[in-house]
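Example record used in the benchmark description.
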Amino acid sequence: MSVVRVENVDISITRGGIKIVENISFEIAPGEILGLVGESGSGKTTVSMALLGHTRKGAVIETGSILIDGHQIVGAKEEDLRALRGGIIAYVPQDPGTALNPGLRISKQIVESLEKHHPEQSAEVHMARVREILTEVALPSDKDFLMRYPHQLSGGQQQRVAIAIAFACRPKVIVCDEPTTGLDVTTQSRVLATIRALCREHGVAALYVSHDLAVVSELADNVAVMYAGKIVEIGNRDEIFFHSSHPYTRRLIRALPDIAGRNQILGIAGYAPMPWERPAGCAFAPRCADAQAICSQEAPAHTQITQTHFIDCHRYKDATKIAPTPRVDRDVVSASGDNFLLSISALDGFYGSRQVLFDTNIHIEPGECVALVGESGSGKTTLSRCIGGLHDDYTGEITYFGQVLGKHAMERKKEQRRDIQYIFQSPYASINPRRPIGATIGRQLDLFFGLKGSEAQMRIKELLDLVSLPHSIVTSFPDQLSGGERQRVAIARALAAQPKLIVCDEITSALDVSVQASVIETLNQLRESTQVGLLFVTHNLALTRTIADRVAVMRKGTIVEYGGIDSVFNSPKADYTSRLLEHTPSLK
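Model output (structure tokens):
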């Protein structure tokens, strides 16, 4: 019997009655994991939060039913919902760094949930459960660890603490909202194994929201694909990933990076419509190569293909199967010495008395992409910040076309600051929340080129097209956008400076696969047309294979392997590189 039963749920913006998500229905049995995938803005988070009785400000669950272990969520009183949250249904957030209380010790944050839902139990029983759940999530349970604060933990440890809090009261249902976004592949592998084991062992039903299809393919039993507020295809894992019928699902899968490096990734032209812009008929029709007249006139029916496989598509029987496109190797013209775009020589990086980078040597040629990969804490971001002029506690040299760069950005010439642009990992922290999107991008145009007025507005629209964002968001503020949309704004802002080198610090970690593919295509086109160089910092080794010419593998501040992408990935010399490749998720 299903412990989660969602039937015909519509969630609308109260003013104007515009539907955010429509006619959502699915079930999850005990011990089962349902993956919910789709592009940014498709409604995944809206649906997942509705299971906890939450809606964004100004939205309301208009119709439908949400039953969690027999409890009706729709229309329930707030005090009843508070009793369910944490006890019957729990939540694992995307960013534990902001979800955990920085002022409370780890033990206190786990105990709080137990005290709330099991006040009849003694403090000794609560602490025993804290130690038990920490062991279950593969964390230490000794006194030293229990007394730590969140900032004293790595990102992976913070995420496993968030999982421990969620599972502390042995809930019946758990909602995971992108819980491995930003984690390196080995940490991600441990977190996924933890979630899978806890769900299986304790019969917990899980809704796993993610833009990473490879992760979902390894974790989920069933998969629901969302587009423009609707579930357009749902089925078991094999039906979705190997026998998909909806053109949108097929395009998502073709956008997935291939760790073997056999095929090019393929983005989806255009962008998903905002709730108030959705067309009549099938919302995917404007982007679909198989669309016919009926697709733009009439909404497709919910059709059953097999006992577990359902689809909303007029053309599913005749939808085109997308053949893989073999990857094309790029030829990079070798430079040397003063002709290197960027050269890093014998760089040692420090945080006060602690050394974190050791004898680092990398060079980047015009039009070349060098990938920098490694686990969290390996030194990737510190090296990136040195290049961007954001970390000046280092020895050694960084040269730009043979000229030694000032250690701090403000010690560099204006042209050098324009030519070297940095895109940060977190779109939440890197974009001014009080400035509309148009002004955020326009500031670069004004600062470096003196563009204002209609000329600037035209250029802003061109940049939004490059990153697959609608022109209408120029008046929007960051809090009105999804994480993936904010990251695309950050990319557009960097491109506005027409840089010669872009330092990309985990820039695709918040993006769904289709937008990720479009961004990679855009960066590759820019490399061809402008010879812009890239330092591509990422934990996604499969994505590295699609964009990089060379790769530097970093561990504990040292580059342990450095060479051509194919030679390193096909015949790794370092055991550490082999482990990273082994833990990289892929469709199998």
